[in-house]
Design brief:
The chain has 174 residues and is mainly β. It is built from 3 helices and 8 strands. It has a single domain, classed as Quinohemoprotein amine dehydrogenase alpha subunit, domain 2 (Lipocalin, Beta Barrel), CATH 2.40.128.120. The chain is 14% helix and 39% strand. Strands 1-2-3-4-5-6-7-8 form an 8-stranded antiparallel barrel. A hairpin with a 3-residue loop joins strand 3 and strand 4. The longest helix has 11 residues.
């Protein structure tokens, strides 16, 4: 079973990708109007990042990269199981939305559309290439994997508070 990256409203598998990409579409503008100097927004720190992408048949694949966020433009490079790549794209400080293209050396390009909602989950969203798509999640190196927080919190519950298999169902059904 593949790990879940994020819970989304129930829109059906067929509509999931189009709903998320429509919700996260970047306006076709130059971003100069909201241009700070070397962006100081804590959601977009420059430097080393880590993360993963998920693809049907391949599962969760780690990547390590370096990203720079300056004046509405994001650039970077890194590597994963496929190979070395460069990132180039745009981001919007007001909405936290990011749209990037990942270009593997001498190979294909992958579109990334995501957001940082300033909720501690860092940067997450959907990647797509051709008709294939999946989820991704990125965070600054040195930060804990934000997708593991629920698991850690559950492990830290006192044993008396942990439910055994079937106990929740018994508690809910008279």
């Amino acid at each position: 079973m593949s790990p879940q990256v994020r819970s989304f409203p129930s829109v059906g598998v067929a509509n999931f990708h189009s709903k998320l990409t429509n919700d996260l579409q970047m306006p076709n503008q130059d971003f100069q109007s909201s241009k700070p100097s070397a962006d100081s927004d804590e959601r977009f720190p420059a430097g080393p990042w880590v993360g993963f992408w998920i693809q049907r048949g391949m599962g969760r694949q780690k990547m390590s990269l370096s990203l720079s966020f300056i004046a509405g433009k994001v650039t970077g490079s890194g590597c994963d199981v496929i190979g070395r790549f460069d990132f180039v794209g745009v981001y919007d400080l007001k909405t936290g939305r990011v749209q990037m293209t990942k270009h593997y050396e001498h190979a294909h390009r992958v579109q990334y559309i995501g957001a940082n909602e300033n909720d501690g989950m860092w940067l997450w969203g959907v990647w797509s290439v051709g008709g294939d798509w999946g989820g991704f999640h990125l965070w600054p190196e040195g930060e804990d994997d934000p997708t593991q927080r629920r698991l850690k919190a559950a492990k830290e519950l006192p044993k008396s508070r942990r439910l055994k298999r079937g106990e929740l169902l018994k508690a809910l059904v008279p």
